[in-house]
Each structure stands twice: as structure tokens, then as C-alpha cells.
Amino acid sequence: xxxxxxxxxxxxxxxxxxxxxxxxxxxxxxxxxxxxxxxxxxxxxxxxxxxxxxxxxxxxxxxxxxxxxxxxxxxxx
Length: 77
Description:
By secondary structure, this protein is mainly beta. The protein has a single domain, classed as ATP Synthase, domain 1, CATH 2.60.15.10. The protein contains no helices and nine strands. It has strands at about 1-5, 10-15, 20-25, 25-30, 40, 45-50, 55-60, 65-70, 70-75. The strands form two sheets. It has a five-stranded mixed sheet with strand order 2-1-9-8-5, with no helix packed on it. A four-stranded antiparallel sheet has the order 4-3-6-7, with no helix packed on it. A hairpin with a 2-residue loop joins β8 and β9. It is globular. The relative contact order is 0.31. The mean pLDDT is about 95.
């Protein structure tokens, strides 16, 4: 699925990933292909991606995640 992690300053990641884990306000949430559409708030923590190059981790202070049509968009602080 296509993943973008964007901060106000720059794009941290743009590419393909097989899974995404985010720090939701109610606990950790994971997304795989064909996940149901979702928008939720994030708390401080790590966004973890599994890509063809291995696992990547990005630390965020909070933000919002939108999942729709095999696209995960993280607007991070």
C-alpha cells in the first residue's frame, strides 16, 4: 500500500509498505492492505513501516492518520 508521512517541515517517507503501525490515542493500531477507511488522532510515539527494504521507524509527537483505498497518510507533528 502507498504510505506518506508528512510533517509541517518536510516529507519523512513516501513509498510502499506492507504494514503500518501507528500510536493511536486509544492504543497502537496496525494497517494492512484493504483496511477499512479510517481517520483517527495520534499520540506521541513511533510509526513503524514494513517495507521491501526492512522495517523503518519514525518518531512523531502526535498528529492524524487517514486510511483510504490502500493509502495511509500520516500528518505528523
